[in-house]
Each structure stands twice: as C-alpha cells, then as structure tokens.
C-alpha cells in the first residue's frame, strides 16, 4: 500500500513558514519521499502501519492550511500516468525488502 499526503499550507508570516518547515521535516523523518512539491508518499506494509502514520500526521499537523491523506494499493499507484515530465529514477520507491547497493 502507499500513503500519500497532500498539503497546502500558508507561508505568509514567519510563523507560517516555521510551521510549514516543521511539518515537512516531520514527513521526511517519518520516511516520506517527495513526489512533487507539497505531495509526499510512503510505502506501508499494512493497515496497522498506515493508521499509526496517519495518527502521527494528525498530531503534527500545522495550525493553518489543508492536509489530506490518501491510501492506495501498489497496483493503483503503478497506474499513475505521467502527462508531462517523467518519473524520478533517483528515488528508490519499490516495496522490495532487499536493496543491493
């Protein structure tokens, strides 16, 4: 499964920028990878892990703005159609348990 977090946060005041950076850093520390600006994704093994991550996002949500979470299967995620641009190959985003460097 794949957990996708979409967010649209204000960056008008310096406090807003701090909240934005804090939330973004929380996602990165939690293992999320940026798909696009303000869209982060993470592979999860099951619903238990998914619910734990969603709970953590709720606890660390910013005071203002919009944060949305979507859970999709790997099969659904693989059907993404790239209309413009191309897939980033520098990011390892497979569900393989063994990575050979």
Describe the secondary structure blueprint for this structure.
Blueprint: E1 2-8, H1 14-29, E2 33-36, E3 39-43, H2 47-59, E4 66-72, H3 74-77
Antiparallel strand pairs: 1-3, 1-4, 2-3
Explain this structure to me?
With 101 residues, the protein is of the alpha+beta class. It has one domain (2-77): 2-Layer Sandwich (Alpha-Beta Plaits). The chain has helices at 14-29, 47-59, 74-77; strands at residues 2-8, 33-36, 39-43, 66-72. A four-stranded antiparallel sheet has the order 2-3-1-4. Strand 2 and strand 3 (39-43) form a beta hairpin. The longest helix has 16 residues, at 14-29. The two termini are 24 Å apart.
Distance between the termini: 24 Å
Q: Major sheet: size, sense and barrel closure?
A: 4 strands, antiparallel
CATH topology: Alpha-Beta Plaits
Uncertain runs with pLDDT below 50, 5 residues or more? none
CATH architecture, please?
Answer: 2-Layer Sandwich
* Strand order in space, largest sheet: 2-3-1-4
**What number of structural domains do the residues give?**
1
Q: Kindly provide the name of the CATH class.
A: Alpha Beta
Structural class: alpha+beta
**Overall 3D shape:** globular
Count, helices: 3
Give the beta-strand count.
4
Mean pLDDT: 88
Question: How big is the Rg?
Answer: 15 Å
Residues in β-strands, percent:
15-25%
Helical content band: 25-40%
Q: Give the topology string: H per helix, E per strand.
A: EHEEHEH
């Amino acid at each position: 499964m794949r957990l996708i977090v979409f967010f649209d946060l204000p960056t008008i005041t310096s406090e807003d920028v701090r909240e934005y950076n804090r939330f973004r850093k929380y996602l990165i520390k939690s293992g999320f990878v940026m798909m696009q600006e303000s869209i982060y994704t993470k592979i999860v093994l099951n619903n238990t892990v998914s619910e734990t991550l969603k709970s953590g996002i709720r606890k660390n949500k910013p005071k203002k703005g919009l944060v949305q979470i979507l859970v999709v299967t790997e099969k659904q995620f693989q059907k993404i159609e790239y209309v413009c641009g191309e897939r980033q190959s520098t990011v390892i985003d497979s569900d393989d348990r063994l990575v050979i460097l």
